[in-house]
Amino acid sequence: MPETLPGGAGRADDQREVDGSARVDDPRSIARIRDSDMQPYVGLRYLSRLFKLMALVLVLMLFAEIVTGLSAEGGMPVPTLIVEISRWIVLAGLLWGAGDLATLMIDVGHDVRATRILLGRQAVHHMMEHHPEPLPPRSPRVPVADARSGGGEDESQPTV
């Protein structure tokens, strides 16, 4: 059963499965959702999780270094630990921010996809409202070589 979305738009591949054609003459076919519109951003989601996981590992290593430094040397290495703590916190913050940027790119991709779908639906609505006559039937496509030669060999030129 074809998947139907609000506004009567279904998936474009449903029509291809029915009649085998790659394109439908119906102007409402523009409003159908293509498979490329539904692709998830799996790679970016994993990248975001990887960056955040690396930031958490850095924070855990930071705590381990603090405990090791204080237990081994006592209060002597505090200035050195402060420098190391600041470096590790900045690096962990940059990694966490990179993970958030990857998540933001996912959200931007969803917004672009939704905008593309909505603009297609608006175009269909405009075409149906201002041009109610049906589209003329499409002529079959003629290969470029056949179109130039008229479909056969040119008899005005001698063959060699």
Task: Outline the secondary-structure elements.
Elements (H helix, E strand, L loop, with lengths): L11 H8 L22 H32 L4 H53 L13 H6 L11
Helix pairs in contact: 2-3
What does this structure look like?
- Helix 2 packs antiparallel against helix 3.
- The longest helix is centred in the middle third of the chain and has 53 residues.
- The chain has 160 residues and is mainly α.
- The N terminus is likely disordered.
- The radius of gyration is 31 Å and the shape is rod-shaped.
- It has a domain of 90 residues.
- The protein contains four helices and no strands.
Number of helices: 4
Give a quick account of the main beta sheet: strands, pairing sense, barrel closure.
none
Q: Helix fraction? A: 55-70%
Strand content: under 5%
Low-confidence stretches: 1-24
Task: Report, as a whole number of angstroms, the end-to-end distance.
Answer: 58 Å
The topology string of helices and strands comes to HHHH
Tally of strands:
0
Structural class: mainly alpha
Radius of gyration: 31 Å
- Note the quaternary state here: single chain
Average pLDDT value? 74
Shape summary: rod-shaped
Short summary of the structure?
The chain has helices spanning 12-19, 42-73, 78-130, 144-149. It has 160 residues and is mostly helical. The chain is rod-shaped, with a radius of gyration of 31 Å.
Pick out its properties:
single chain, 160 residues, mainly alpha, 4 helices, 62% helix, disordered N terminus
